[in-house]
Structures are given as structure tokens and as C-alpha cells.
Amino acid sequence: AERQMISRIFRFTRAEARKAMVPLLRVEAVPEETTIAAAVEMVRREGFTRIPVFQKRIVNIVGVVHAFDLLEAPDLARAVTDVMRPVSYFPEATPLDEILIALQRTRESLAVVVDEYGGAAGIITMEDVLEEVVGEIDDEHDVSEELARVTGPRTLLVAGQAEVANLNERFSLKLPEEGEYATIAGLVVERLGHIPKPGEQLKAGSVTITVVRSDARAVREVVLHLDRPL
Fold first, then answer.
1. Residue 206, SS3?
2. CB–CB of 29/58 below 8 Å?
3. Which of 3-12, 44-53, 125-134 is the least confident region?
């Protein structure tokens, strides 16, 4: 479990701004001369909580207006620049963990991702950054859920690529992890010394493994028979 968490954190650290940003094509922004009244109307119609503001061209984002600042503005005829907040700019290759720290420090909830020419390539929000971390965790969990299914009080149907460490953690098994393999298919092949045909069995700790599906190249599916109810 710790090894998985560490690998997720490393993956997150290596991920770059461009991976989590909303590309400029999908960004709804307003020119700086837009009135507060028009921006309020946009907020009501579209449900936005923040709208980037640009100068002349959308690639030149100069700030962001927050819905609640707009709604509290006394003079609706003034330009949005009256209530605009500053934004930070990050190159596309900026690691997400750096952006997370910077946004926490400045208390900004939205930043602009810029290309090598300094023009906006997209926007990134605190939610986008956090989604990237949490999404990694959820995705990994979803995948592991699909790779192993409880089919009886003492049986599991498991895909060959399911990781042994993950199975041990999820189902409190004691499958051996010390071999030159990571997956259940690797364990089976290492123990048997060949790629088995369906129906072949082996014992791994207190678990009996039966090969259900295999082909010339790999073990595709196995059933684990446990010595105790799950």
C-alpha cells in the first residue's frame, strides 16, 4: 500500500501543467471592457464562478473575476477590471506539485498556463490540480476493482495482470511477493516453469490457483481458492 501511494505521489510530481489544464479553446473569457452587468448576466446564464479577463486577444489573459465580487459590485455600468483579481502564469511544463504550492501560497484559485511565446495555452484551477491527484487514486482503485472479483465465499476470479501486492492488500492474502514478478500471471509462470494450459493448478501459500484462461503468450485469468471464507 505504501509503495503504491509513493508511486502515485511521484507520478503526480512528474505530471505537468498541460496535463491538467483546460485548453484555451474551451475557456469562456471576457474582454476587459466588458461591463460588470454583462458579466453578471453571463454568470447567471452559464453558472460560472470565475471568468478570466483578456486584453484585446484571448491569449492575453490579464486577470479573473469572481462571481461573488461581481454580485457585490455597487456600479454595474463599470468595467470588470474594477473587480478583477490578479492571476499567476505558469509554463506548460511546470510540475503540478509546484502549482499546488504556489496557489496555496497566493490563495488564488485559478492560474494561466502559458506557451513558450507567453500567450495563454489554457487555464488551471485548484480543483483541476487536486482532481489530477485524486483521479490517479480513483483510477487505480477502479482498475484494481475490475481485475479481481469475488465469485464465492472462498473464491476469487482474477485477471492475469492483477498485481500480487494489490491482491494481498485487498483480500488479506499471503501470496508470495518475493519472486521476479509483479502480477498473478507472473507468479503462476515462475512457479510452474512454463505457460500453463487451462485447468492446471498450483499451491501458493494457503491459496490454490487454477488457471482458467491462457494462451501461447500468457496466463489471462485464474481462480483463487482460499482456505478460509473471505
1. coil
2. yes
3. 3-12
